[in-house]
Each structure stands twice: as C-alpha cells, then as structure tokens.
C-alpha cells in the first residue's frame, strides 16, 4: 500500500487549488467551481496535508501563494488544460456537436444571447460554447471555430463577412420623458436639454471611442461645450443600456443592439431619428478557411448570417423610414 505522501493526488483538490491560485480568493474560486467556500478550504487543507507543505498564506483580507504552491501550479495548470481538451474531444466523439465562438461581452448580452434560443430549438444536438472577451481571436486557436467581432473595415480579418454597420442614437427610459411631460423632471426635447440630465458614457480608450463618445455626438449637434448635470462612466456597452433601461440617464446607443428594446417601448429616442449618427465601424462574422466544414459549424454560421440579415433589414428600414419622416415633419426651432 502506498504511504500517505506517495499515493496519487485526487483531481478534486487540484481543481480547487488551481482556481484559488489563479484568483487568490477563496470565495471567487468557490463561485467558479460552484462549491461553498468551506468546501474549497477543506480541499486545499487536504491537499496541503497530502504534500506536507503550505500552498497559500492566508491573511485577513488577502491570499498569497507560496513557493511550493507556485511550483505545483506550473505543473497542474497545463495538465488540467490538457485534461479539459481531451474531455471535450471525447464528448464531441460521443455524438454531440459543439461549436465554439468568441465575441465581446456586450454583443453577446445584447444581440447573440436573446436570439440563441431559436437556434437551440432548431438544433437540439448542437452545443454552443461562447467565450466573451475583447481581443481578436487568433485563427490558430483550435478551440475557437469562429468569431463575432466589431472593428473598422480596414481591420477586418481575411475571410470576415459583414453582418451590419453602425447607427448611433441617444436613448433613455420612457420614465424620463414622462417625468418631463408632467413637469416632474427637467425637459428632454432638444439636445441642449442634456445639460440638465445624466449622460451614460462608455469608458473606453479604443479607436472607436472617437465616434461612440458623447463629445463627438454633441459636437455634431453644435454643442461641443455642453456639460451635463453629471457623468456616469461604465466599462461596457451593455452596462450603458442597462443603466438607461433603469432610468439612470441617457445613453448613446448602437441602434442594432437596442432596436428590440425600442420596438417594445422599453427605450425611447428623445430627439427622434434626425439626431442619429453613423460611424465607419461595423460587425463581422470572422471565419477561418482552414476549419473543417462540420455540419454543426455550417449550420451555426448560416443561422448567424440569417439573423444578421434580419437585423440589417430592420435597422435599415427603421433608419431610412424615420429619417424620411424627420425631413418631412417640421422640427423644433427653439434653442435652449
């Protein structure tokens, strides 16, 4: 029989160790593995007992990995990665067809996920794996089948297919408009009225921020020096939209990502179609020619292109129709 410190280590404690080592936080590791914090602590303690060394130094408000822990992590992390890759390959061979894609978090939240149930209903045998991050995936990454990305046409990767372009428009909750009409809140009929409101701004240093910022939009309205009552800066587009839905201020939104909310009346355009602007950026389906043409991947690509065409048609129809109406209807001439 193996002596205690010679027998193989259990996989469970190694999973717990890897999660704590990456996050340096027991609570975060527990949430990642869907376990309780005491369960994570017990697994780490059992692993330390097996090895006879401390793997972490536990402080009141922080966790540090020890030298022994760092040595173990260098061995454990690649082993777990290889194990997970093998498991995915086994499951694929067992009959379920996976499709892996990468996109940015806001696009996943606002466009992809609300539509995905339709694909799943029509294709119950296909599993979808979504990696939401802000970098352009490398075509050499065997774990990714395709990408849904946002970039300037000059930066679109080879083989990328245009999904739709970009129209920007101020949006807010109808509660702000209703309050203004009742006299319970400041007016919100002209761009100059934004001086009395909160502006929700995406806090971004990306090149696209030149077109997505309120400063750019205000400059196009002839109000480059306007200062709102307050600013709220947010990291992601979907956070801007959520804040606007909650009535926290006015967001400069991408029409393609909020068109359903506008149609449902959950958001409104306080200044109408005449104040919409465009940017040269667009949304792309990025394919890699070297990928095998698996039926599941082909089905998902066809579905994405169909959904993109529907969005493109709806946005074009709404934008062109509303803009024509705006040119015909007399607009307000008062400048506050």
Report on this structure.
The protein has three domains: 11-93, Arc Repressor Mutant, subunit A, CATH 1.10.10; 97-164 and 283-314, Periplasmic binding protein-like II (D-Maltodextrin-Binding Protein, domain 2); 165-280, Periplasmic binding protein-like II (D-Maltodextrin-Binding Protein, domain 2). The protein is 46% helix and 18% strand. It has helices spanning 11-23, 26-33, 37-51, 67-93, 105-122, 174-182, 209-212, 214-220, 237-245, 255-263, 295-328; strands at residues 56-58, 63-65, 97-103, 126-132, 146-151, 161-171, 198-202, 230-234, 250-254, 277-286. The protein has an eight-stranded mixed β-sheet, with helices on both faces. A two-stranded antiparallel ribbon has the order 1-2. Helix 5 (105-122) links the parallel strand 3 (97-103) and strand 4 (126-132). Helix 1 (11-23) crosses helix 2 (26-33).
Produce the secondary structure layout.
Blueprint: H1 11-23, H2 26-33, H3 37-51, E1 56-58, E2 63-65, H4 67-93, E3 97-103, H5 105-122, E4 126-132, E5 146-151, E6 161-171, H6 174-182, E7 198-202, H7 209-212, H8 214-220, E8 230-234, H9 237-245, E9 250-254, H10 255-263, E10 277-286, H11 295-328
Parallel strand pairs: 3-4, 3-5, 7-8, 7-9
Antiparallel strand pairs: 1-2, 5-10, 6-9, 6-10
């Amino acid at each position: 029989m193996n002596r205690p410190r010679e027998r193989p280590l259990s996989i469970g404690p190694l999973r717990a160790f890897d999660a704590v080592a990456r996050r340096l936080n027991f609570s975060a590791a527990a949430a990642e593995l869907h376990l309780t914090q005491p369960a994570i602590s017990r697994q780490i303690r059992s692993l330390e007992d097996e090895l006879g060394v401390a793997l972490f130094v536990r402080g009141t408000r922080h966790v540090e990995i020890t030298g022994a822990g760092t040595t173990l992590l260098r061995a454990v992390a690649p082993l777990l990665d290889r194990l997970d890759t093998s498991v995915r390959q086994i499951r694929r061979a067992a009959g379920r067809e996976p499709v892996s894609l990468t996109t940015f978090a806001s696009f996943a939240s606002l466009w992809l996920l609300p539509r995905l149930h339709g694909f799943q209903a029509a294709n119950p045998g296909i599993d979808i794996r979504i990696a939401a991050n802000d970098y352009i995936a490398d075509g050499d990454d065997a774990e990714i089948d395709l990408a849904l990305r946002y970039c300037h046409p000059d930066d679109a990767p080879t083989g990328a297919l245009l999904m739709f372009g970009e129209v920007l428009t101020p949006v807010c909750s109808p509660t702000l408009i209703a309050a203004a009409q009742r006299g319970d809140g400041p007016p919100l009929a002209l761009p100059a009225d934004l001086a009395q409101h909160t502006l929700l701004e995406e806090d971004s240093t990306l090149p696209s921020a030149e077109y997505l910022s309120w400063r750019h939009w205000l400059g196009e309205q002839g109000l480059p020096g306007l200062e709102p009552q307050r600013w709220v800066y947010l990291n992601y587009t979907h956070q801007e939209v959520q804040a606007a839905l909650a009535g926290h201020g006015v967001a400069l939104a991408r029409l393609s990502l909020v068109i359903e909310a506008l149609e449902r009346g959950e958001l409104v355009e306080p200044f109408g179609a005449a104040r919409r602007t465009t940017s040269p950026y667009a949304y792309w389906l990025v394919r890699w020619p070297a990928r095998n043409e698996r039926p599941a991947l082909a089905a998902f690509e066809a579905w994405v292109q169909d959904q993109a065409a529907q969005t493109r048609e709806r946005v074009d129809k709404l934008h062109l129709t509303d803009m024509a109406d705006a040119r015909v209807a007399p607009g307000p001439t008062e400048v506050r």
